[in-house]
Amino acid sequence: MKRKPSPAVRLLYSPACHRLSLSVRLQHSTSQRGFFTTEMAAKVCRTVLLLTRSSGAVVTGLPALAISSQRHQQHIRSGWRGAPSWQGQRLLSSSTAPEEVTVVYQNGLPVISVSLPSRRERCQFTLKPLSDCVGVFLTQLQTEDRGIDRVAIYSTDGARVASSTGIDILLLDDFNLVINDVTHLVRPPRRDLLANDEAERLNDVKFLVQQLYTTMRIEEHQLSKEKELVVRLEDLNSQLRPLEKVREELSRKAERRTTWVLWGGMAYMATQFGILARLTWWEYSWDIMEPVTYFITYATAMAMYSYYVLTRQEYIYPDARDRQYLLFFHKGVKRQRFDIYKYNELKDSIAEVELDLKRLRDPLQLQLPVQQLTAASKD
């Protein structure tokens, strides 16, 4: 009795081509070989087809299976090519350029639109060409976005525009706005220049507006300035009071010692007169004392000249008295460790503040009428 061959089906993986190959071999107990039956071949085909669908492999050796595998791979490729375009774009990173700074005129006023760096938002700044300057615009930018560390305006040739430049002058040409490390090229819209007559009339209007503003705000400015000066004067006086007490005490001591020196000089001169008179009329005669008085007078002249050589001042009694007073006063300052430099600085500051108050309260500054000014001068 012949035994049916037992088929052995093996799937081999080829790393070189990344495919699965089917190897079917019939094992016989004898040396005879045969072919598959129809039923067994159908089972093998179904099994391999399921494997190829799950793994996407290409089966070699069976033509029908190879064609089925190729169709399956083409279906997968066509499905991948038919995928939406946004799936491939997910892998791409896009970087957009910073938005431009635009300048438009609304109701006759320039409106500058800038993208703020912190929130990436567009912000509009309305400026006044006649009164605003570049510094005002830069301050508004930093106030609006605290993330701006550095902001400046440069001309197209690289020169920095001063903060005092007017907005009307800035918008005449193109310029670069630098915010942190980003440079924006700003191209203001071109406007026709005014004629000479219109320009002069516009300058007159600007001058009148400035005068009107000054006239309306002068009283408020004077009141605020006077209040500020009064507060400063009170502060300086509060700092000066303790120093003033120490200075008065030192001044009294120096005055007392200077008075003693003056009376000591008077006592010396009276004693000298008494001794010379006693020697001239009682002890000796005038013939003997005359050369003595001459040498005493000459010695006094030499002492006065020595005073001039040492002090570079003529020996005049008021000046000599003031000098002696200052010597005693500064000795007391060193002894008490009195800060004379701070005292002098406070006195100078108080004098300046009082002078400013006097000038501020001047009737001419207050714009008083003529009658009130005359009455104030009489008082």
From TrEMBL:
One of its GO terms (cellular component) is uniplex complex. One of its GO terms (biological process) is mitochondrial calcium ion homeostasis. Mitochondrial inner membrane calcium uniporter that mediates calcium uptake into mitochondria. Mitochondrial calcium homeostasis plays key roles in cellular physiology and regulates cell bioenergetics, cytoplasmic calcium signals and activation of cell death pathways. GO terms for molecular function: calcium channel activity; uniporter activity. The keyword Calcium applies. InterPro entries: MCU_C, MCU_fam. This is Calcium uniporter protein. It comes from Oncorhynchus tshawytscha. Keywords: Calcium, Calcium channel, Calcium transport, Ion channel, Ion transport, Membrane, Mitochondrion, Mitochondrion inner membrane, Transmembrane, Transmembrane helix, Transport. The chain crosses the membrane at residues 260-280, 292-310.
